[in-house]
Design goal:
Blueprint (H helix, E strand, L loop, with lengths): L7 H6 E3 L5 E4 L12 H7 L2 E3 L2 H10 L4
Antiparallel strand pairs: 1-2, 2-3
Length: 65
């Protein structure tokens, strides 16, 4: 059985948590920040768990992570 290739785009955007969940960065935190409240920007700064069927697909993209 040959080695599996890691999807490099996914590797740069996703990581696995200690419990094996797939984590991603929150969207909407790159520009147009002046109109967003400090509370909202703090919340967007944190990583979130990839949900549902997406997580299973993402695990396939990161076979060794």
């Amino acid at each position: 059985m040959p080695k599996l290739k890691t999807h490099r785009g996914a590797a740069k955007r996703l990581r696995k948590s200690g419990s094996g969940k797939v984590m991603r960065a929150s969207a909407f935190h790159s520009h147009l920040l002046a109109k967003k409240s400090a509370k909202r920007k703090r919340r967007l700064n944190k990583s979130v768990v990839v949900s549902g069927a997406s997580a299973r697909a993402m695990k396939g993209l990161l076979p060794y992570a």
